Amino acid sequence: MVIEVRDLRMRYGTTDVLRGVDFTAERGEVVALLGPNGAGKTTTIEILEGFRMPSAGHVRVLGVDPAKGDELWRAKLGVVLQSWRDHARWKVRDLLDHLGRYYAPYGTPERTRPFDTDELIKTVGLEEHAGKKSGRLSGGQRRRLDVAIGIVGKPELLFLDEPTAGFDPHARRDFHDLVHRLSDLEGMTILLTTHDLAEAEKLADRILVLAGGRIIADGSPDQLSRQVEGQSEVRWTQDGVRHVHATDDATGFVRTLLAQHTAGITELEVRRSTLEDTYLELVQRFESGQMAGQEVAAL
Questions:
Q1: What are the ABC transporter domain coordinates in residue numbering (predicted)?
Q2: What's the chain's Rg over C-alpha atoms?
Q3: Running DSSP on this structure, what letter comes out for residue 193?
Q4: 30 near 204, Cβ under 8 Å?
Q5: In a domain, 297, yes or no
Q6: Residue 229, Cβ neighbours under 10 Å: how many?
Q7: Are strands 30-34 and 206-211 parallel, antiparallel or unpaired?
Q8: Integer distance in angstroms from the first to the last C-alpha of the chain?
Q9: Domain count, the chain
Q10: Are 137 and 217 within one domain?
Q11: Does residue 183 sit in the same domain as residue 119?
Q12: What are the beta bridge partners of residue 210?
């Protein structure tokens, strides 16, 4: 178990930001932490990174209490912040080579550190810009460098905060490929926060939804979508009139529809709810008080 959190609580003055957060993450798993602004995502991440002390609860990251993590423990972590504008005068290759040297003493026969600099540059797609100063990179290129800085030490656990902000569609697709490669080939556990729910659906093995200081949903995108009523939408045209019907059993509904109308049905399509639909429904249920404590626990 790479991350183990039980009954995590955080209070600022008289305000409870985290009210008993529970979740785990295993080796090689990509987990997305979602939630509305103010839900406690940043606080949770900072506690896991060892930058903030919790008020109460059990937290273990790579088997260690983050509040007591030493340099050897910290060398196993990688962090990609939402924005990073330092090192503008460093050239890309020189910067990564310099930062990588800090990780060399913490390598092991099982996991050598750091990444080979040229291999890392190729991995993040900056070969053509290796000799360019960081301050002269475009926004997307700068973001790739941010990722390279975060993984230069071959972390076992990588924190990604809004990783593709500012990426064009091509760069975003390349980054998604990189995340899958890191988790599959390097065995990295990746915990990401993002407001791009389509991205979370593509990347994450498991989704955590944090609201009101608690985890209100935990499961794969498919598992979560099946917990929301009306998850599928059937659309069809009959005699020139467009119809839309929401149903829990799209297959059964389509069978009945075609049995009742053997002709005249055209443009038939089935749309399952997206992660965005599911997320918004879950948060709305919680905020409106429709989600009971037992239901939260079941999710």
A1: 3-237
A2: 23
A3: E
A4: yes
A5: no
A6: 10
A7: parallel
A8: 20
A9: 2
A10: yes
A11: yes
A12: 215
* Same domain membership, residue 257 and residue 204: no
Note down the domain range covering 253: 230-272
Please calculate the CA angle 209-210-216 and round it to the nearest 5 degrees: 65
36 and 173 together in one domain: yes
CA angle 235, 236, 242 (to 5 degrees): 95
- Reduced to 3 states (helix: H, G, I; strand: E, B; else coil), residue 32 is strand
pLDDT value, residue 85: 63
Q: How far apart are CA 292 and CA 259, in angstroms?
A: 39
Pick the closest to residue 17 from 288, 214, 195 (CA basis): 214
- Point out the domain boundary residue: 181, 202, 222: 222
- Asked, for residue 126, whether it belongs to a domain, the answer is yes
Edge-to-edge order in the sheet of strand 3-12? 15-25, 3-12, 56-61
Quote the longest CA-to-CA distance of the chain. Answer: 73
One domain, residues 33 and 154:
yes
Q: What is the pLDDT along the chain (299 residues), one digit of tens a residue?
A: 999 999 999 999 999 999 999 999 999 999 999 998 888 999 999 999 999 999 999 999 999 999 999 999 999 999 987 766 667 889 999 999 999 999 999 998 888 999 999 999 998 889 999 999 998 988 778 888 988 999 999 999 999 988 777 677 887 888 888 888 889 888 899 999 988 888 898 899 999 999 999 999 999 988 887 776 656 788 999 888 899 988 878 889 999 998 888 788 889 998 877 788 888 888 888 888 766 543 444 44
- The predicted pLDDT at position 294 comes to 39
> Residue 130 phi/psi, 5° resolution?
-60, -30
Task: Report yes or no: 152 and 144 within 8 Å, Cβ to Cβ.
Answer: no
- Whether residues 34 and 131 share a domain: the answer is yes
